[in-house]
Amino acid sequence: MMSEAALDEVSVLSSIYCGEGEFVLQEAGQDGLIVQINCTGGGEDGLVGLLFHLHPGYPSCPPDISVSSTALSRTQCQSVRQRLQERASELPPEPMVHQLVEFFQECVELTEGCRGAVEAMKPREQDDEWTAVLLLDHMRARNRYVGLLERWSQQLQLAGALLLGQRILVILQGARHSVKEFCHRLKTVKVDVDSSGKKCKERMMKVLIETPSSSPGHHSIQGFIVKNYESVTELSAAFEHFHMTDLYQRIFPSLKD
User: Fold this and answer.
1) Contact residues for 253 (Cβ-Cβ < 8 A; gap 6+)
2) pLDDT digits over 68-81, tens only?
């Protein structure tokens, strides 16, 4: 039986890697779970699949890792797998899949055998500009929560806007891996308090949309903005101000649920 920590991590991963085909989960019976994260490295010809076999003892024991790719040779895949496995053995016995994916995407020095191919993937995964809109579930400890969001946006070099009203929305612009790290922190850090005043995580956060920015290198939002709205008209106007009318129209059906 999988631990609660492992099941929580799988839930978080499915929210972070929510693009089409990015996240695949398979049950392996008594042998645990198999999680596959698919990373695009260079268009359709640059797909890298990172497969993590989570045994029932995970995270007390690290996952078994496999690497497949349309961009790397078999030898290069083996080199990447070996470095990821070594990294997994170095980490504390805590949920680590996201850290391992980030380790790969950030292109830390792997091995001489695969460095060239991995570096060729780096601009696609790391530097592409993306825009995401997140829906938060609650914000009771407002000052603390807003302070954390502002700090994370600065640390991750993201532009963003927090829209407070009937629905709590966060707009993010920046490197895709930074957007995903922001989402990971929301799901794993105690950012707010529950109805009893106890510190809690933002487990119910939803990614409403995640899409390449229409104007790479140019953020329509500067810094991190906090704005209150009282009506759908004001919310629509905020998106229009950020030159994101089309984005608003795409997420609007989700806001009516």
Assistant:
1) none
2) 888 778 888 888 88
What is the per-residue pLDDT across 16-59, written as a single tens digit (0 to 9) for each?
A: 888 788 899 998 888 899 999 987 654 345 678 999 999 999 99
Question: What crossing angle do the helices spanning 176-188 and 142-155 adopt, rounded to 10°?
Answer: 150
